[in-house]
Amino acid sequence: MTIAPYGSWKSPIDAATSIAGGVGLASPLIDGADIYWLESRPAEKGRITIMRLSPDGTETELTPGVWSARTRVHEYGGGAYAVSGGTVVFSNDADGRVYKLEAGASEPVPLTPDLPDRQLRYAAFAFDPARPRVLAVREDHRGAGEAVNTLVAIALDGSNDEGTHIAGGHDFIGPVAIAPSGGRIAWIAWDHPNMPWDDTWLYIADLDDAGVPITPRIVAGGPRESVVLPSWADDDTLIFVSDRTEFWNLYRFRVSEAATVRLAAEDAEYAYPQWRFGMTAYAIVDSRTIVAASTRLASWSLQRVDIEIGSATPIASDYTVIGAVSGGNGAAVFLGGSPAAPTEIARYDVATNTIEVVKTTKDAPDAADLSRPEPIEFPTEGGLIAHAFYYAPANRDFRGPEGERPPLVVLSHGGPTGSTDNALDMALQYWTSRGFAVVDVNYGGSTGYGRAYRERLRDNWGIVDIDDCVNAAKYLIERGDVDPDRVMIRGWSASGYTTLAALTFREFFKAGASHFGISELGIMATETHKFESRYLDGLLGPYPEAKAIYDARSPINFVDNLACPLILFQGLEDKVVPPNQAEMMYEAVKAKGFPVAYVAFEGEQHGFRQKENIIRAIDGELYFLSRVFGFELPEAVEPVEIANEDALNR
């Protein structure tokens, strides 16, 4: 092995490899004997296309060319397509219209009107088995105030244009589930200031012959109960997920009995936080059987749940991360990943109790070049314990000099209501294969550990998350794993805020990288989109009543405290975190005289989707750190312009 300084190792994982050729897999669905999914393609400017796999193994791209199956409902989207009997409906990103593509047709046909600026947006489609229509969540931006969210029915012949009203009356609604006969529906709703992981309501209603709801009624939910993901097992049996007993568990509601029973009761989570539609963790595969994924301590497993008796039977697999579960006809499809293999689409057959790989787009590097995650628990403030995954440097051709410890990259996930997992992440391995250590922190506020852990961040964003990131690094320093003088923090979106706040409010980190991160919290409260417009009420307090707290925790107001180099990346069409957030921080740090870089991307929104921009951000951050920590890069990468660069040599 070659002995070389940490950070300077030549890696088999370049920026292009770290995004795995640009193809991402999402939203698998079963329709009869066919399997469908979405593929995102950064090489095609982030276009998302619909794919179909036939029983004979033939893959067909159903939406080639200009089509992109994506929705902007809640800005984060999800639930962009559905399929039944070979007919696909989807939201097209360019115009926000809903299109229908029938089996054998060469071109989709529009079902909803063509309005400017995506004024009508649709998501979470559900085919009505009794009527020629689909139900969907509609987000109406035509008014002067907030967008209006309702449940509508869209005729498959295109005759009703924008959709017929089905349900509303709340700030947010959906997704909807339709009983097998088409005689009943169920849906989720919630209101400001709640988010779907706070307080929601589960409605059910019978439908008349015309498909209009009759006397909707609430059957679950309310204060301090998050109910998500309704689905009908039969016309009388509704399955849903609730955290009424601390963890998101499965429940069965019988309409005829008006009775609710918990299934597979355990201290595990059967749901993800519902940032997007389609974030499913279970599927009903027949009237008696659920195939479900659940997580304990950020490690997922698969199991069969008997709807009648509530028992759960483990399903053997190597997957430790499982999501986007859907199914029917005795089978389930899902996204599965593990520390050793990239995420792929898999199919589980109930009759044979077997799992087969349906689609994978990424080849894992040699195992000797991979860093394996070590789950760690570490002490944090208040006598509590927090969680993370630690990755040591790994490269079969290199090792560090004797007595030298590696630099540490501290990651904090976005959300902040979310979590990180231990699936193989090539973007993370980009760093470890170059000689960096990485700790990926599930700070207090993360999901997957129950409601109490999730609510540690309540009123404490910008405190608990920073403390846990600092304490994760201190734990590794005390173990002797990493260099205390070369610890940096990086993040994106909400974790970009954690990055900026950590650099501003703690004298600990030696550098930082913020990708579309938040620097001024008041702007987030007043200028962001509807879905998150009251999100900060629970994390900081209502605005403007709690303006003093917002001001006190906004990094932009305390840039004089920042005493280390910083690089910022930003999409110029970002509606979630406006570009002025990064621009203000850049100008403030620049004026103070510290090394700072700002890289902006035309045409990018909240999260980069274009291949060349993703590569530029990855390599640009590496270049920046090579200048900050003073190591030589084994291969040339395109430099970034660093303001006050001469300060690095002082």
Could you characterize the architecture of this molecule?
It is a single chain. This protein has 650 residues and is mainly beta. Among the domains are: 23-166, Neuraminidase; 365-649, Rossmann fold (3-Layer(aba) Sandwich), CATH 3.40.50.1820. The protein is globular.
How are the secondary structure elements laid out?
Elements: E1 2-3, H1 15-18, E2 24-31, E3 34-41, E4 47-53, E5 59-61, E6 81-84, E7 87-91, E8 98-101, E9 109-110, E10 120-127, E11 133-140, E12 148-155, E13 164-167, E14 172-178, E15 184-190, E16 201-207, E17 213-221, E18 227-234, E19 237-245, E20 247-254, E21 259-263, E22 282-286, E23 289-296, E24 299-306, E25 312-315, E26 321-328, E27 331-338, E28 341-349, E29 354-359, E30 374-380, E31 384-391, E32 398-399, E33 408-412, H2 426-432, E34 437-442, H3 451-454, H4 464-479, E35 487-492, H5 494-505, E36 511-515, H6 521-527, H7 535-539, H8 547-552, E37 566-571, H9 580-592, E38 596-601, H10 611-629
Parallel strand pairs: 1-32, 33-34, 33-35, 35-36, 36-37, 37-38
Antiparallel strand pairs: 2-3, 3-4, 4-5, 6-7, 7-8, 8-9, 10-11, 11-12, 12-13, 14-15, 15-16, 16-17, 18-19, 19-20, 20-21, 22-23, 23-24, 24-25, 26-27, 27-28, 28-29, 30-31, 31-34
Helix pairs in contact: 4-5
